[in-house]
Amino acid sequence: MNRKHLATRYRITDGKDFRLKDYSPDDTWKLKSKEDAHKWLEEGLARLSDLQDRLYAQNQWSLLLVFQAMDAAGKDSTIKHVMSGTNPQGCQVYSFKVPSEEELNHNFLWRTAKVTPERGRIGIFNRSYYEETLVVRVHPELLAHEKLPSRLITKNIWEERFEDIAAFEQHLARSGVVIRKFYLNVSKEEQRRRFLSRLEEPAKNWKFSTGDLQERAHWDEYMKAYQQVVRHTATEHAPWYIVPADHKWFTRLVVAEVILETLESLDLHYPKVDKAKRKELAAVRLALLKKEAKV
Ligand code: ATP
Ligand code: MG
Prior knowledge:
295 residues; alpha/beta; Rossmann fold; 6-stranded mixed sheet; 6 strands; 12% strand; binds adenosine-5'-triphosphate; binds magnesium ion
């Protein structure tokens, strides 16, 4: 089994003919159980840690991971597991909720543009500017709160937002931000089971909000909106991954593999130390050995 397939199998770089229903939420490729995945994940996380170290030291590229999904698809736990092997200093995680008053007083890319990852860092967006074409599309009344001049709200607004997002991602890519976007593809039935366990297990109660049930009622509209998102914004430099999300262990494995494959493609290396610098370091070492305060 070639693990590279784990990443390529779910990747969309051209969304023209994309149909969400071609992707099964409970797919686990050739793997049968959590145990099959365990070793791969352990190995993968060790490699990830090494690559992140080089990314940080090289300080040129950065990686932006965008997570989008329906409630209870496992965004939080996937982020937690996949990043468990990384150095927190090199990671920047942002969760985007309902926009604040200040955020609504700016263009819709403002709040995310402010926090794109610095060079050498891995940035994680738990939800993102894509919400502007998802929740806002499913609930058009939200648009009315965005304080846009009315003549700018036309039937083309979603197409325009896709164009803006594509241009923004192109700009980031050209600046050295490598973008990978994940749609955690959970089924409606698995979401029902997870909601039930949030209600039945006291330790999970806090995760449930009644609003989640209202969004569930709009399931089909969300699926349509997600399909449109992928159709319009999947590109070579910012691909979408439609990650099966009915089995959490498999979701983690796919996401980890995509991150690994991406970092491996960047030829990351520690900055080279030139002759002059080597000489300087040797002198410092000597001074330290002799317990001298100065070189
Ligand atoms: P959890 O797993 O903890 O429920 P979550 O990401 O669902 O995590 P919540 O605080 O429950 O976090 O929800 C955030 C809410 O904010 C979502 O319903 C989302 O659709 C909404 N939201 C995010 N961005 C926007 C936006 N630009 N406009 C309107 N609503 C937004
Ligand atoms: Mg929620």
